[in-house]
Amino acid sequence: MQGRVLIVAGSDSGGGAGIQADIKTVTALGGYAATAITALTAQNTLGVEAIEAISAPFVAQQIDVVLKDIGADAIKIGMLHRKEVVDAVAGLFDQIDKLPPVVLDPVMIAKGGASLIAEEASDAIKKRLIGPHTLVLTPNIPEAEHLIGMKINNLTDMEKAGRLLLDMGPVAVLMKGGHSEGAEIVDLLVSPEGIQTFSHRRIESRHTHGTGCTLSSAIATGIAQGLAVPVAVARAIRYVENAIFDAPGIGAGHGPLNHGHTVSHFE
Description:
This protein is α/β, with parallel strands linked by helices. Helices cover 39% and strands 22% of the residues. A 9-stranded mixed β-sheet has the order 3-2-1-4-5-6-7-8-9, sandwiched between helices.
C-alpha cells in the first residue's frame, strides 16, 4: 500500500518505543518511514537513565530536507522534549503551504514514570502544534490530564476531556483508555461529528512498552495510505492489540511489542 510517513520523535535505545518502534510499525503496515530524531535516550525495559538533546535547528533541518526530496503523506510527532525543539518544528510547519496531515502523540511520561518533556515544552505544544497543525491528537489518560489540568476517573471524564482537547484546535482527538481499569479498554475518537467508541479486551501483560508510539504511527500510516481517520484508528488498534498478544517477552521490566507480527517468514 506504501504511504510515506515522516516521524519526528526521540530514539529509544531499547528499541521498544520512540523512533525504533515507529519505523517498525510503519514498515510492518506497508508504509515507508523517514525520520527526524529529536533526542537520544539511554533506556531499556526498566526505565530511562539519560536523555541527550539534539539541537533544535538540526531537528528542523532533518524535517526540511526529507520533505524537499522524499516528501510525506503524513507526519507523526512523538517526543519533542524541549521548548526550543517545539518552536523549531512549529516554525517550520508555519512556513509550509500544504503541510501533510499530522498525528501528534503528546509523549510526556515514560512507561516507568520518568518525565520525557520539560514543562515549558508542554505549554509550547499546546499553543504552537495542537491547534494550528494537528489532524489527530492521541493522548493517554495521564497525558490528557496534564494537558487540560483535570482528573479523569471514568468514561464520562474521558468524553469531557476529549471535547476540551478538541477545543484546542485539532481535527480529532483519540482518547486512549489503556490506563483505566477493567477487563475492557475503551478508546474514544472525538471529533466535531461526534464520538466514536472502540472497545477491545485488555491483555494482561507487562510487555506494553511503546504502545502509544506504535498506535500513533499506525494511525499515521493509515492516513498516509488514504484511509479515513476512523478506519485508520480501527486498524491501528487491532495492530497494537495483536502486537501485545504476540510480544516476544524481552527484558525484565516493561517489555516491547512484536511489531513484526504482520511480516511473514522469509526463506
